Amino acid sequence: MIAVNVMHKTKYLWLNLWSTRKTINNINYGIFTRWYSKKSDKDECRRAIVDIPTDAFPDCPQPYLRRKKKKEGILHKIKLKIIEGGTNFGTPFRRVQCPPKPCKEEVVPEEPKALPPPKKKVFPMPEPRPGVQVSILGADTAIGQYVALLLKQCPCIKKLRLYEAKDTQCTDCSRDLCNVVQDLQHINTNCRVQAFSCACYELERCLQNTDIVLILESGYLNVDIPFEERFYYQAPIVKHYADVIANECPKAFIIVCATPIDCMVPLIAETLKETSWYDPRKLLGSLAVPEMRASTLAARALCLEPRYTRVPCVGGTEGFSLVPLFSKAIEYFDFAQHNAQMMTNAVRAAQFAMTRCDGCCIKAANLSESHALAGLVKKVAYALLCQDVPRVTGFVETDPNQVISPARYIANTVEISGGGIVKSLGLPKMTDYETTLVDIALNELLAKQKMAEEWYCKYCSSSCRLDACQFQFFAPKSSSRLDDCAYANL
């Protein structure tokens, strides 16, 4: 038994020794034996496997760089075949590695105790838009309040001032102007509205630094009143407006809408000439209402869009002096003479047709007239801001080089820019019927302008106050107080 065990142990020992010898031979063979790669198809020498650079490390994208040889000749290839190991006479490859990146310490965020306060985004404020300041004289009437409502929505108007030419406590025709202003302030636009009253002598404050002055009628007048009486009623009030304009805002653009416009424009011009502040480019009589009516009538007759149809009006502003040119409604088209005559009479009599009696006041087409006047003021406002050069019809002083007529003031088409009226287009080419109407209108305009100049020379020339004989031109005799505060202390 003992011999058998000894034999087994001897056999196990020899087997271990034999396996150890094989392992040592393999290690020596791997160390002292150089393996070569297969010969390539090209005429190149074989290189040892150990000399071939391995793949790049994943951490470093750059491969092993090897020094570039200057020239590879036949002698270099022979030396590589003879000398084993190394390249270029034993020069080893350079192993390029990326520099180790510094390890960043991981910071464990602490749990927030509470949510941070929300950060409000601060949006940049837009630059303020340029705007003009408009003063409406005679805003206590229904037309003045409607015009103020429409102008409050205009983005180019930054301040709107309403002047009450009459004491509303003595009349039952309109609301209190302060209540109207408070009502207009609720409209979400950037225009600021202010109220001024004649009872507090605030006309000077209302006109300070004003860009556009809109002169409306200071009360409700019956259109059946004769022309002379209407002029004598409005002339003292308009004259006082012109005096204050010359003192407070002499460079303002004046739009005259107080009837009769044919006489009020020469009256304001003479008043401003006396103060040496007259600028014919800044004075305009409104023909927006008759032009709107004529354009609407022509568009309905021709089945066209009214806002794209324009009928210019020349001559005067009312009555026989008003001449709408229906031949200019559409190019290359003329109405028959009887149709043009019928539409001309309809435009001239529109104010009488729309007049109605409501209680103690005579009210006309307030809504349509307000729309036309507000559109004219908007055009002038955009023109003064140099955003547009509109063409409007206005009652202005004529240029003798363009129109030869006995009347110095005539209605025609003008262009308005930042400096005011820059160009007067004069009278266009007209038909024979329209030419006859214009001749009659010019003679009537001459008579009206002479009446305005005579009144000014008699009562107002070289004087800031009116004579005592002018009291007959004020409001009806039933009124116990003067209508305009400017002459209250006479």
UniProtKB/TrEMBL annotation:
The EC number(s) this enzyme carries: 1.1.1.37
Principal EC category: oxidoreductase
Keywords: NAD, Oxidoreductase, Tricarboxylic acid cycle
GO molecular function, one term: L-malate dehydrogenase (NAD+) activity
A GO CC annotation given for this chain: mitochondrion
All copies of domain Lactate/malate dehydrogenase N-terminal, residue ranges: 133-285
Top-rank lineage group of the source organism: Eukaryota
UniProt cross-references to SUPFAM superfamilies, sorted A to Z: LDH C-terminal domain-like, NAD(P)-binding Rossmann-fold domains
Matching PANTHER family: MALATE AND LACTATE DEHYDROGENASE, MALATE DEHYDROGENASE, MITOCHONDRIAL
Protein name as catalogued: Malate dehydrogenase, mitochondrial
Record organism: Galleria mellonella
